[in-house]
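The instructor's notes for this session suggest beginning with a concrete chain rather than abstract definitions. Hand out the sequence below and ask the class to guess, before any prediction is shown, which regions might be ordered.
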Amino acid sequence: MTAALHRVQDLGAASARFHAQERLRLAVSVYLSWRDVQIDAVEDGNTSLASAIGRDMKALRENFGRAEWDRELNRVTEGQS
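After discussion, reveal the predicted structure:
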């Protein structure tokens, strides 16, 4: 019984790590999409839109630790090069 309980707990912890990583990956993907839209808004002279997007981008980043965010952002952007 104890071994089965530990396996369930291990599975639960692994599942939580997986979902956290997927959440981070999705957030970075959204962030990069918004960055492209923000750049377009600046180029079009729409500073109000660019500013609003920037605030949303900051809020998205702040949902994660700086180190994990930077690591995932670097992983994704280096893969695009």
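Then share the key points. The mean pLDDT is 91. Residues 2-43 form the longest helix (42 residues).
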